[in-house]
Design goal:
single chain; mainly beta; four-stranded mixed β-sheet; 8 strands; about 0% helix
Length: about 110
């Protein structure tokens, strides 16, 4: 089962996006992919490719909740899909706030 809700993707810079307005039913998994990837939530055109597992993903509920098991983040390899998993088999999550940050290189 996928994310519930429309999903609002807000670009906070060239390498970071915030995803809001989604939640997960009990035991559900939602997917995030690069543009054209067909995920439940699609990252904007021009967002750096999800080519490495160095992508940083954080996910939390935007409100206090009663989830008994935490949300989990999984990344496939090579990275094409980010999965957010509700480990609670009984309770749906509250609305989620997800950040996806692409790595940057530091050159001297």
């Amino acid at each position: 089962m996928a994310f519930t809700g429309a999903g609002t993707v807000t670009s906070l810079g060239t390498r970071i996006v915030r995803i809001t307005d989604v939640l997960l039913a009990a035991a559900a998994t939602g997917t995030i992919t690069a543009f054209g990837g067909g995920g439940d939530v699609v990252l904007p055109v021009g967002f750096p490719a999800l080519a490495t597992n160095d992508v940083i993903v954080s996910c939390k509920e935007a409100a206090v909740s009663i989830l008994l098991k935490p949300l989990a983040v999984a990344k496939d390899s090579p990275l094409t899909t980010i999965s957010i998993i509700n480990g609670d088999a009984v309770n749906a999550s509250k609305t989620l706030e997800i950040y996806v940050k692409a790595p940057c290189s530091i050159e001297s």
